[in-house]
Amino acid sequence: MSEIELKFLLDELTSSELWGRAKALKLASGSPKTRTLRSIYLDTPEHALKKAGIALRLRRDGRRWIQTVKTRAELHGGLSQVGEVENPAPGGRLCLEAIPDAAVREEVVRRVSGAPLQPVCETVIRRSASELSLEDGTRAELAIDIGEIHAGGRSAELRELEIELIEGSLGGLFDIAHLLFPEGGLRFSRLSKAARGYLLAEQGWIDPPLAPRNAEDVALDRAQIAEQAARDVLRECLDQVATNVVVIRELDDPEGPHQLRIGLRRLRSAFSVCASVLKSPEMTRLSMEARWLGQEVGRLRDIDVVANNIVRREAEAHADEPGLPPLADALSRQAGGLRDHLRKVLPDARVQAFLIDLARFVEARGWLVPQDFGQTERLAAPVAELASQALGKRWKKVGKRARGLETLTVEQRHELRKELKKLRYAVEFFSPLYPAKRVDPFLKRLKKLQTVFGDLNDAAAVRAMLTGAEAPGAGDPAAQRAIGWVIGASQARAEFGWAGAKTLWGSLDETRPFWK
After folding, report:
1. Maximum distance among all alpha carbons in the chain?
2. What is d(CA 515, CA 381) in angstroms, rounded to the nearest whole number?
3. How many CB atoms lie within 10 A of CB 465?
4. Is 516 exposed, middle or buried (0-12, 13-18, 19+ CB in 10 A)?
5. Element at 141 (helix H, strand E)
6. What are the C-alpha distances in Å from 161 to residues 1, 141, 147, 354, 425?
7. How far apart are CA 99 and CA 68, in angstroms?
8. Taking a C-beta distance cutoff of 8 angstroms, is the pair 432, 220 a contact?
9. Can you tell me the distance from the alpha carbon of 303 to that of 324, in angstroms, rounded to the nearest whole number?
10. For labelling, which of 72, 226, 352, 497 has a CA lying 20 to 30 Å from the CA of 288?
11. d(CA 494, CA 49)
12. How far apart (Å, rounded) are the C-alpha atoms in residues 67 and 88?
């Protein structure tokens, strides 16, 4: 049996209002039923089951005890898909031999290998649940879980919402989320209760400490088809974007906006490099929404870069320039205003709809176009074929933009910079498919060239930000001197790097493309 559910974290206000909204929308036919669930998760002293991706649970539901084994758990974008096998456990007694599925039973017994099974954690949850239905026939159970997780002498509160599919389409779960939360504010739940319990037992918390999330490698495999690889790349992009949305809402770390912008750019690049299998009206719409959000985040990121990475760097290196620290402070105050604005945008309905629709696109095969009769064949193509075509296309575009490199205008340099960035993202997506000894030299030379174009972009950003109508320091001679200093220093750095750009491009151009 497979359990499929969409999971979100809740705050107190949301959980108290939810049932009224479900009734008003006529999604729920009756009142919710509330019961207390006590669950005990068990494992060997070495956590052999956890290492194998298995959760073993005894649950008391009213007067009944139920033994459950969960396997093959996947949780992406709030959507949990897991194999589940249950059987009665009279008196709350564990009995591996009673597991009804022979394959699951043999796997659990093999993993336990005679070791003692002991409690790892316990959850005590008050669950309010009711069945919901949509006009298209989709039926789901909406459950609001409020309670605590206990492990290792510690406890932590948990408020979680689950929308579990009973019958109908997977996409219906996302439709229900849209209907129940039209105003925004949702957060995907990224961990199962079992995973939270293990974290509490081992590290003392049920969620890892919130921190900016960098892009991670995607473990692509040459045995995959193009659709599977595209899905895995998009899952990584979604996770980076969704995590950093929360980071910006709750932390002042300037790395949060930086990583969110990177995540959005990687997402749009993934759409582009996988267009042969993903292209659809919904992909185009999501790409445009990612572009809009990237522009919102970009304004804050740009001023953070100028204030912290450029002006403060000059202030630390040249303490005899008294106008530099006040200039950095003035820019930081402007950044604070932009951060406040962004914190109003991110919990709003538009961003939430984008994240839910992106998760639906990734997990419910939102790229399928019924009228496209050749799509099935393209989706089933080997991933290596997709990678070769996508990398070749990106490389060709870079080469076209780089012609006559030393004579490029400012606008042409900017376009080349964007193509280099897209190429780098494509290389990072598909690099696991190729030997590192072939990928690394190409990527190393590409990054060096990107650094040159990054300095050019920084110089342009400094000039635009410090000479525009909203530039700080108008009428202040010390500030004007500092502005001139920063513009000159950033321009000199950019020109110095540009002097070696032709050599760096030649080095990259001579590197054998690793995908051929």
Report:
1. 83
2. 16
3. 23
4. exposed
5. strand 139-151
6. 21, 10, 12, 19, 35
7. 8
8. yes
9. 15
10. 226
11. 55
12. 6
Q: Note whether 28 and 22 are within 8 A (CB).
A: yes
Which ranges in 305-409 belong to alpha helices (H)?
312-317, 324-345, 349-363, 375-379, 383-401
Instruction: Indicate whether this model's pTM tops 0.85.
Output: yes
DSSP 399-433: HHHTTTGGG--HHHHHHHHHHHHHHHHHHHHHGGG
Element (DSSP H or E) covering residue 235: helix 226-250
In this structure, what DSSP letter does residue 475 have?
T
Structure tokens at 329: 């402070």
Separation of alpha carbons 486 and 212, rounded Å: 28
The Cα angle at residue 306 between residues 304 and 307, in degrees rounded to 5: 65
d(Cα 282, Cα 300) in Å, to the nearest integer?
28
CA-based end-to-end distance of the chain = 44
β 2-9/154-167 pair status:
antiparallel
Q: Helix, strand, or coil here: 493?
A: helix
The tens-digit pLDDT sequence of the chain (516 residues) is 789 999 999 877 666 678 888 888 999 878 899 999 999 999 999 999 999 999 999 999 989 999 999 998 899 989 999 999 999 999 999 999 999 999 999 999 999 999 999 999 999 999 999 999 999 999 999 999 999 999 999 999 999 999 999 999 999 999 999 999 888 878 999 999 999 999 999 999 999 999 999 999 999 999 999 999 999 999 999 999 999 999 999 999 999 999 999 999 999 999 999 999 999 999 999 999 999 999 999 999 999 999 998 999 888 888 888 889 988 888 999 999 999 999 999 999 999 999 999 999 999 999 999 999 999 999 999 999 999 999 999 999 999 999 999 899 989 999 999 999 999 999 999 999 999 999 999 999 999 999 999 999 999 999 988 887 777 866 678 778 888 989 999 999 999 999 999 999 999 999 989 998
Sign of the Cα torsion 25, 29, 31, 32 reads negative
Query: Which has the closest alpha carbon to 107: 48, 152, 186?
Result: 48
Q: Where are the alpha helices (DSSP H) in 168-225?
A: 171-180, 193-203
CA dist., res. 222 & res. 356, Å (int): 30
* Tokens matching residue 262: 């990177």
Burial of 346 (C-beta count, 10 Å sphere; 0-12/13-18/19+): buried
